């Protein structure tokens, strides 16, 4: 997963009081209340339902289990086909050889590690994302596994497949991240299987938090059978992070999804969110919220 700040905003209009507010925080009015008055009484968080769904819905767990189970069932087919690769040609796919060691490339956050307790902390404390807060969470090493991820990783390792963790956690977070993974039972061949943000790849210039250079580095040593992530950027370069451009990418590569690329659901943050407000994180929260509302397709 590529890290994007978790967004904590004031709601522009009233949301469902039953869904967002405990009874002891806001008494039911005896008469209809104007929306402006409700907004003053109720602080709504964009991430409340998203985090609640990840933590408490059976549907989220089923989706994650389903993804990892089906990916596991594809391993033997990928191993048996010497031409099989999950890398695009421009990222080393044309140079993959059956003589290379097989590997599966996975993102870390919201792909193998579940950080919803960190997101829930922000919601509960009415806080907002910060690099310092995120670094402190990583150091806690309290992330739990995404459902199904450990079983898949252990199955892959039993077949001689190396798990490669390409993350936009920084290179400095390697030790804490690998310790967290090991505690949960994820196979970690050695420290080199973690490629964090800031990893230097000779001859390749990384743009922002894109992972293309690191995928090229992996392609030099491994035949990549699958890539698993929760963001498009876990699979390919996203040159133009707009809603239309992302739709076009999905249309172009949907044949790779469910065979070479496997996507986990993540409603809490991602490029899909910032695409709705032209990636302008410098805008005031109210303006970003208004842009997201404008992007909704409303039934008329």
Task: Describe the protein's architecture and organization.
It is a single chain. The chain is built from twelve helices and seven strands. It has helices at about 15-20, 35-40, 50-55, 60-80, 115-125, 130-140, 150-160, 175-185, 210-220, 245-255, 270-275, 285-295, and strands at about 100-105, 115, 145, 160-170, 195, 220-230, 260-265. The strands form two sheets. It has a five-stranded parallel beta sheet with strand order 5-4-1-6-7, sandwiched between helices. Strands 2-3 form a two-stranded antiparallel ribbon. Helix 3 packs across helix 4 (about 60-80) and helix 4 (about 60-80) runs parallel beside helix 7. The protein is globular, with a radius of gyration of 21 Å. Residues about 1-45 have low confidence and may be disordered.
Question: Topology, pairings included?
Answer:
Elements: H1 17-20, H2 35-41, H3 48-56, H4 58-80, E1 101-106, E2 113-114, H5 116-124, H6 131-140, E3 144-145, H7 149-158, E4 162-170, H8 174-183, E5 194-197, H9 212-219, E6 222-229, H10 243-253, E7 261-263, H11 271-275, H12 285-294
Parallel strand pairs: 1-4, 1-6, 4-5, 6-7
Antiparallel strand pairs: 2-3
Key descriptive features of the protein:
300 residues; alpha/beta; Rossmann fold; five-stranded parallel β-sheet; two-stranded antiparallel sheet; 7 strands; 39% helix; globular; disordered N terminus
How would you sum up this structure in a few lines?
This protein has 300 residues and is α/β, with parallel strands linked by helices.
